[in-house]
Amino acid sequence: MSLSKSLSRFGWRRPGAASVALLGLPMVWFAALYLAAIGALLITSFWTVDDLSGDLIPGFSLTNFQQLFSVPVYTHIALRTIGIAAAVTITDIILAWPVAYAMIRLAGPRLRAAMMAAVMVPLWSSYLARVYAWRLILSHDGLLNWTLMEIGLPRLHIGYSNWAMWIVFSYLWLPFMILPVAASVERIPPSLLEASADLGERGFATFRRVVLPMALPGMVAGAIFTFSLTLGDYVTPMLVGGRGSDFIGNVVYSNVGVTNNIPFAAAYAVLPLGVMAVFLLIARRLGAFDAL
Amino acid sequence: MRSETLIWAVVAAIFAFLFIPILVIVLYAFSAAPIPAWPIAGFALHWFADTWADQAVRQALVLSLKVAAVATIAAMILGTLASMAVARMQSAAKEVVSFIAVLPIALPGILTGMALAAYFAFWGINLSYWTIVAGHATFCVVIVYNNVVARLRRMPRSLTEASADLGADAFRTFRLIQLPMMASAIGAGALLAFALSFDEVIVTTFTAGAQNTLPLWIFGAIRLGQQLPEVNVVVFAIILFTAIPVLLAQKLIGESGKVAR
């Protein structure tokens, strides 16, 4: 009997063994690189750096975490990051609804396909290009201020501010919200909406009491992306945020690139890990993983 | 009827919001002015030639293509294997594995970047071409995995069973039945993974050392406010270049049009 035959026979009798064989290579890769890297992050967050030589000092020290919680700037930056991530998520939920609803319930098949493509293209087109576009639009002599002047309004100074970050992040991640919301609206059987109408509910009441709860997993699935992507960014704050617009990522970035304090950077990066762990646990409860 | 018109008006405004920045990029690429300002005073094509002649841009482009190619190949192999394993699993194990598998894209980019930086520092590994590839492959694998897993969910198990009943071993079934049915999903995942790798900047900064990928070159130039006309051209080219694989991938995935990221 050939080797391939006996191997596949073994796999047929023991499906578990076949799964392990298939999963072996990806699992080793994933554990050896990604999970081990997260582990290294956690370990080095307790290390310190020699002030004079700049060498890493292995060990167990809470210095980094003490510094994070005692220096007001770091708490402030963490709150700003989480606050803007939450604001962006809410904004994207509000903007995604009309698009998702029109796409699934109002548009015909051809228009729906075109709208879907129109959501996909910005989702996948260059992140840097789109941030840069907003830097051009919001700058002092950019498109926004020119438009305001043309229609007789005063110039705005929202370039390089927290407002700019809020607009740009909401813009960047909107497609990530539209797609799962649309998918979950698509899954609601029309008969439920008819039943609600038969029972005397008006349009908005049906939306609030039938559509919204049933689309909740889709919204949470989208929120995982809008929240996490905002939480982990430092490029957008550097390009469109102002001097006082640092995110958690910017502190991590400058501690690795400029001061070369990897343990401190690692400790600060543990924070978004903790925030996302809580977020993902709640998301799982709400059934978001079936809607991904 | 009136509320429907209102919804369409809102939707049109949101699509304008999505596309005006992309339009702005297209227009600025042809601007003649050395410093970008609105309204665009004059148009010129010579920045395209200047950008193409810039050695730094070319080197960055070549590096980005090399990284994306290798990361995509790794992602195709690992992502397909993982998705086939998950498709065979029982519900409890399946849930755990599929939860862990999406972590590289569900967790913030700064975390992946910083974790890899700490990991390489931990082992004393110098940053190089291969550390960039390793970083990109972590999230590229997930893209391929997501697309193939979605396809396998719709693929009836009876087909592989029929193949086994007719005497084909597992490898032959894979070659003749499973691979052809997964091929377009693997292809779509690969195209999207390539596009994502080609554009990645958040993780790359932490794994690149002294070398510049194209996004790193752009990021540096924008921050320093240098060579902005060249940035305009490069950014326009990237938009054009990434739109092609994305639209192709959508075709491959079919009319349902759902691309998993």
Automatic annotation (TrEMBL), chain B:
Q: Which SUPFAM superfamilies match?
A: MetI-like
* Gene Ontology CC: one annotated term: plasma membrane
Q: Which compartments does it reside in?
A: Cell membrane
Q: Where is the ABC transmembrane type-1 domain?
A: 61-249
Task: Tell me the Gene Ontology biological-process terms attached to this UniProt entry.
Answer: transmembrane transport
Checking Gene3D superfamilies in the record gives:
MetI-like
Please give the coiled-coil regions recorded for this protein.
none
Give the Pfam families listed for this entry.
BPD_transp_1
Query: Which keywords belong to this entry?
Result: Cell membrane, Membrane, Transmembrane, Transmembrane helix, Transport
Indicate the transmembrane segments per the record. Answer: 7-30, 67-87, 99-121, 127-148, 179-198, 233-253
**What is this entry's stated membrane topology?**
Multi-pass membrane protein
**Could you tell me which PROSITE patterns the record lists for this protein?**
ABC_TM1
**Which family is it part of?**
Belongs to the binding-protein-dependent transport system permease family. CysTW subfamily.
* Protein name (record): Transporter
> Organism, per UniProt?
Acidocella aminolytica 101 = DSM 11237
